[in-house]
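Issue: ligand-bound run for zinc ion - logging full I/O for the record.

Environment: standard queue, default settings, no custom constraints.

Inputs:
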Amino acid sequence: MKTTIKCNCGQRVLAKDVMQTGYYLRLIGPSFVYVKFRCSRCKKLGEQFVKQEDWEEGILHDIQSEIKPEEKPRFEKMGRIDIHECIDAHFELEKMDNLREILEAIEEARK
Ligand SMILES: [Zn+2]
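Outputs:
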């Protein structure tokens, strides 16, 4: 079973509810990840220690409901920006190649 963090009221704690996290390294016994949160349902503060070995990537993320419908267009927009960033980076690399050619040409001319 997947580990989840839950408030005393039963509400699952997700990344947006987390106020603070910490890491408790112990020399003997398991290390712990400390999570302080404010419950999205009852608004109470809570804290929980999760064994490091039980901590996993998806623990604070509910893939099904994490992204609200009204947030979807924003994320889709972000996706498009990423594509443009890739293209920009590609052009930057091409510029660098051109620059290297120019520098090499200068070096050749000096010989
Ligand atoms: Zn609660």
